[in-house]
Design goal:
The protein has helices at 3-15, 20-36, 49-68, 71-94. It is mainly alpha-helical.
């Protein structure tokens, strides 16, 4: 599954009705991506568009969880947060921003 397919399928799942197995598949795929992001050779999200798109999905998951209290949706939300953190950490390690106080000067 490509990152674009993951986004598309997650958006569809969060906007419609979906079963636990589909949410589990999407959660697993997001976790897989989060675990492999560090292997990327270059900056993944130079313009911040990926983070923006997946952060909107994370917010959708949070809102849906607040309505349904579905633990599978909460797990998906957490997997999205992990993916976003992995991408941001990877990119910051490769191309530290000037306003990041955590990197050496």
């Amino acid at each position: 599954m490509t990152l674009n397919e993951l986004y598309r399928d997650m958006r569809a799942a969060l906007q419609g009705s979906v079963d636990a197995a589909a949410i589990d598949r999407l959660t697993t795929e997001a976790s897989r991506y989060a675990g492999t992001v560090g292997w990327a050779e270059g900056v993944i999200d130079k313009d911040g568009r990926i983070a923006e798109a997946f952060d909107s999905l994370r917010e959708m998951a949070r809102a849906r969880f607040e309505k349904t209290r579905d633990s599978d949706i909460a797990t998906l939300h957490d997997a999205l947060a992990d993916l976003l953190l992995a991408i941001r950490t990877h990119d910051e390690d490769l191309d530290p921003s000037s306003d990041n106080e955590d990197h050496d000067t």
